[in-house]
Structure to design on (182 residues):
């Protein structure tokens, strides 16, 4: 029962943080819809079974079973994950550019996850460090990678409040169809 409540508390806390960050950026619909698939039976089952409190249950499931049906379910329904943007071609799997609004949601997701899992150890460079530590197995479009690295680097350098102001400007440019300077 402790794992069940622990997992529900973690995903609820994460959802609230990401929703708040998305709202601050101006992404209201994305904030409301963020990670709703985590409440589906397949994802909840994994969360309840593999909950540890300091990392994603999906990682624990992958270590134990070699793969995660929950992750396959999750990434296929949530466009803020770079894995959602992989496509088959005659030359194999290739990444396609993410829409910028989803790059921003990915940024919000990374910040919230870092804050929740690191707790008092969180610093504004934590999401960038996490990304860099896992970059070797990321298959992301170069444009998308430039954008997420820009946002995570901006956070490290200027802090969350200034980064959100910068994101608001960039989202407005994107809405107007203007090329982003990143």
């Amino acid at each position: 029962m402790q794992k069940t409540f622990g997992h529900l508390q973690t995903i609820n806390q994460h959802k609230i943080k990401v929703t708040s960050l998305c709202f601050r950026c101006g992404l209201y619909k994305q904030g409301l819809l963020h990670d709703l698939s985590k409440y589906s039976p397949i994802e909840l089952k994994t969360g309840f079974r593999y909950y540890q409190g300091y990392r994603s249950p999906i990682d624990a499931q992958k270590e134990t079973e070699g793969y995660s049906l929950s992750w396959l379910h999750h990434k296929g329904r949530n466009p803020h994950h770079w894995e959602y943007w992989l496509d088959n071609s005659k030359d194999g799997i290739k990444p396609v550019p993410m829409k910028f609004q989803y790059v921003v949601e990915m940024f919000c997701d990374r910040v919230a996850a870092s804050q929740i899992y690191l707790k008092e150890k969180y610093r504004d460079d934590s999401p960038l460090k996490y990304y860099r530590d896992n970059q070797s197995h990321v298959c992301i479009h170069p444009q998308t990678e430039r954008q997420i690295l820009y946002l995570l680097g901006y956070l490290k350098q200027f802090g969350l409040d200034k980064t959100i102001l910068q994101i608001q400007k960039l989202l407005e440019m994107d809405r107007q169809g203007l090329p982003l300077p990143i």
Notes: The chain is about 65% helix and 5% strand. The mean pLDDT is 96. Residues 2-175 form one domain.
